[in-house]
């Protein structure tokens, strides 16, 4: 199957080369045709577009152009002799230009990390979000979640995209760990933050955007939504690190962050419009945006203590820092009430059958509990505010250590 897909990719590039007048004028092996030379060039072009660290297409083009002016056939012979015998065989057959398993196994770690890949942990973490997305959003695309064909047809793109986002989110959260009192641990954590800050988030997400672009799925709006994710992670670091230092934070940053937090759902939704060949339905997007906002608040209330422990973004944490422990619940309740009014107004604009289906999905999700798309409309439980987060972390950690000792 992989060989057939590779053959299809090469054939598409050959067709492009032919239409652009890029086919070789040299004969292949003394024959009259240029089949082998054209295939070599097609594989070379495919190799050139593979993501590699932060190198842009223009940079790779300039590098190759500069090097080819200096390389001679003798240089290639020298490189071949310097290589491992197995690599010699791969070079002579053109295998190194093909993105196959052998190439990936032989590539060094930096090359592998630059490719659009995801780890098992990210795939596992993305599972519940993907299930929720399919059950809550497929109805807006006229798809039946109970039809396996509808799910598996779009699952590869949706699963890879969400897993990649989760992987980046985990990297961002690693930089938010509360700084230990131990000086060596503190220095290590600060170094980790510096390394992450210096690494452009745009570069980190480029492998995903490159893949979506190659699949013909990238749009300006989708790119903007992915950039919203970058903005969210930057804001999360800014806000959570400010809390760790007891610095003031702004309500504008907090509200912007909570609205950006659901960017992955919007990315998946926009991908569905591309995959199904439909125009984006603005009414649906507006309605779901309000629903996503309420869902994020619901999730934050559910995960409040865990987020305090991990020093990750949580709207109740932020409200407590801005308004104080006693006033924060009242201000958050006011925010929720205003959002629910907008939610109810937009739900009346939906097709009645669609609105009814989504409402039933919300009820299902509420009964199932945990992180859900269907927020508990009208029924909210704001947990007690933790006024001293550092003391809470120490107490929780000591209890965990004590229970571990008993076991």
Automatic annotation (TrEMBL):
Highest taxon of the lineage: Eukaryota
PANTHER family per record: ATP SYNTHASE SUBUNIT B
Annotated protein name in UniProt: Uncharacterized protein
Annotated source species: Panicum virgatum (Blackwell switchgrass)
Source organism phylogeny: Eukaryota, Viridiplantae, Streptophyta, Embryophyta, Tracheophyta
């Amino acid at each position: 199957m992989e060989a057939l897909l590779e053959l299809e990719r090469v054939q598409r590039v050959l067709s492009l080369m032919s239409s652009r007048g890029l086919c070789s004028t040299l004969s292949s092996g003394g024959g009259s045709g240029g089949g082998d030379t054209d295939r070599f060039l097609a594989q070379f072009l495919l190799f050139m577009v593979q993501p590699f660290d932060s190198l842009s297409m223009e940079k790779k083009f300039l590098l190759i152009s500069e090097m080819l002016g200096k390389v001679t056939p003798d240089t290639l012979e020298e490189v071949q002799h310097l290589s491992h015998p197995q690599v010699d065989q791969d070079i002579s057959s053109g295998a190194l230009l093909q993105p196959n398993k052998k190439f990936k196994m032989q590539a060094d770690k930096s090359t592998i990390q630059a490719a659009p890949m995801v780890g098992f942990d990210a795939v596992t973490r993305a599972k519940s979000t993907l299930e929720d997305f399919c059950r809550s959003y497929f109805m807006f695309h006229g798809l039946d979640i109970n039809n396996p064909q509808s799910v598996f047809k779009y699952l590869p793109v949706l699963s890879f995209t969400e897993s990649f986002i989760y992987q980046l989110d985990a990297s961002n959260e690693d930089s938010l760990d509360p700084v230990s009192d131990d000086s060596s641990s503190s220095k290590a954590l600060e170094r980790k933050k510096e390394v992450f800050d210096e690494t452009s988030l745009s570069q980190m997400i480029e492998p995903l955007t490159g893949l979506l672009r190659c699949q013909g799925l990238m749009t300006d709006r989708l790119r903007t939504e992915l950039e919203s994710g970058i903005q969210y992670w930057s804001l999360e670091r800014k806000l959570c690190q400010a809390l760790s230092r007891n610095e003031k934070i702004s309500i504008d940053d907090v509200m912007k962050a909570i609205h950006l937090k659901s960017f992955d759902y919007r990315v998946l939704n926009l991908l569905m419009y591309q995959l199904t060949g439909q125009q984006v339905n603005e009414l649906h997007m507006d309605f779901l945006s309000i629903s996503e906002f309420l869902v994020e608040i619901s999730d934050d209330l559910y995960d409040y203590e865990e987020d305090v422990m991990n020093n990750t973004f949580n709207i109740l944490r932020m409200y407590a820092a801005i308004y104080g422990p006693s006033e924060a619940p009242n201000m958050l309740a006011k925010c929720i009430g205003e959002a629910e009014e907008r939610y109810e107004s937009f739900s009346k604009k939906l097709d009645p059958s669609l609105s009814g289906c989504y409402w039933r999905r919300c009820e299902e999700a509420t009964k199932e509990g945990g992180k859900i798309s269907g927020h508990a409309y009208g029924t909210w439980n704001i947990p007690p505010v933790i006024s001293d987060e550092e003391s809470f972390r120490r107490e929780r950690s000591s209890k965990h250590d004590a229970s571990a000792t008993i076991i």
